[in-house]
Amino acid sequence: MKKIVYCMTAVAFLLAFGLVQALNVSAVASQSSCPSWETQYEQLRTPPVGNKVITARHRGAFDGFLPENSMGAFVKAFQNCASAVETDVRKTADGQLVLFHDINIGKMLEPTYDPETNTGPNQRLSEITYAELSRKHLLRPNRQETHYVVPTVNELINYVIDNDVNSLIHLEIKDPTAILEVARLLRDHHQVNPNAHILKRVVIKFNMGEYPTPAQWKAALEKEGIVADYTLMPVIAPVTAQRINVGSEIPNPEELELTTNASRAVAHWGKAPMELAPIIEVVVKDSSEFLYTEPRTHSSFGNYAAPTKLSLDNVKKGTVAEFVALTHFYRKNLGAFVPVPDYGLFTKGPRAGFTVPNTFGDHTPIAVTDAFFNNDSSCCYAVEDRRYSTEIASEAHDWRINLDWQHSIGANILTADDTDSIEMYSQQHGYLNSVARPNPQPASKEMNSVLKLLAEGHSVPDSALVKIKGWNGASASTWGGQVCLWSDPGYYLWTIACSIERGGYSPVLEIHTVGKGKMLIRDPQSLQCLTADPAVSEVISWKDDCNHENAHWTRTPAHRFLDSNGREINFQWDDRYSYGYPFAYNFLSRGDTSTWSQWLLEPFDVDSNDPYK
């Protein structure tokens, strides 16, 4: 009996810290069944043929239990046979090289930080010592703590060597001062254990503006006394190109006459040996800078324009299109990032139907299915917010999530949070590198990946069934526990305990995003919508006209619903009773800061046709 009690206690402890999930990782796949790292390296250094796609798992195989950029997420990706794992390198205040995506730590390390209101502790990682950082635990998407701490670069490299990991590692260096420090660390590992071939297994990914040519990279190594043969991935974005263009003159390669420094920089990296630079990543968002394109209207990802050819005579000089063409001219792998909205990844939902804050432009709220966290931990932005027109790229669109468009420009090294959907789609269309990834697996339904929906031919949903709970989900015994908004077709919105017998009424409501930052709240039975009367504050009605502006609501970062006149849905003790429980008719108020006007959206998942499934 004592042994049974001890075992049960141990399991409870492991569950509390998320270790059971880490232990279960070994059940996903045996690493021995994965293509070897030597195979992955050969596929990378071989000039691409047919633009066969290889992926890199961004931030590891994180999920609802394993935090992003945690050792657990990396190990799971390795055992899932990821061709490569891409992670981010930053420096702490005392110079420790760590793996962390964001500039600030609130989203991933501070349970009391609220990304929507951007309130609570949210220090910059660069202002924290490693000792301070290691006392904080990484958070799951539901903001629960795990046992994982922010790993160091050294910890990951040691794991790769000690466990003979088959996946390659792409280290994206976010802090320019860390580039040579990472190079030195890898050199040191190579000197201690040359048979591990760590310089082939780890790709250093850096902003091309730091070292515009291989000669400048070599000179920087020589200055630091570093002698080693690295595997590199220079990245060029429009802002990088602008920086290179105003820098020191870069000579033309012998075989080409190029008009800008940036294009010459790409050419020099293109000429570099495949062993040094097998990949050039170009941040290109559409086909605007190609001279001749063809409209494509049958993609499940949406319409786009495909270049008629990817040669240098089909591009505007000095633009991202020329960078793409140069990469192909020199037969290098073209890298690209595929952005997948990450606000809803691995959350319990709702998966759609509501808006979240927008930190860009006029701050019009954005649909959750379009939402990305900012790298300062705050919520949120949409890719359309980050299009900037320059002489390098007009960025009239952002088509990067469109895998058909990515294939049309020849992008074949694709980094994303959802590499599973990229691999499945590429396999179905005949251009997955099956040597690097022979047995792709579909993304889990729990991921809530918009990319998965589009790749499988679904529309991105704009609605969800929910219970809308008062006090932001808190409860009160005098009210019978948690309270919900309830339908009453043709009459008024009311609030009562969520658990009462329904008697023809329902707390299950339908939320919809309707554009321009607005939402509607609808009774799925009567199809009536919650509607405010500009001249009335005492009650809120259920009415038939869901298209009227009075039926459209704005959700605030503090989880309040405002009508078109800026009044929030509220309630208070009303000394009324129904079914033996107190209830209140909802009213509209202004400027309330209490929890009585805060509403939690709790998913009510009964739809067997949910496309995420």
TrEMBL record:
Record field: transmembrane: none
GO terms for MF: glycerophosphodiester phosphodiesterase activity
Residues forming the GP-PDE domain are: 53-179
Ordered alphabetically, the record's keywords are: Signal
One GO CC term on file: plasma membrane
PROSITE patterns (alphabetical): GP_PDE
Q: Which organism is it from?
A: Trueperella pyogenes
Mind telling me which Pfam families this protein's record contains? GDPD (PF03009)
Fetch the InterPro entries from UniProt. Answer: GP_PDE_dom, PLC-like_Pdiesterase_TIM-brl
Q: Identify the stretch annotated as signal peptide in this record.
A: 1-22
Q: What is this protein called?
A: GP-PDE domain-containing protein
GO BP: any one term: phospholipid metabolic process
Q: CDD domains from the xrefs?
A: GDPD_AtGDE_like
Protein origin, superkingdom:
Bacteria
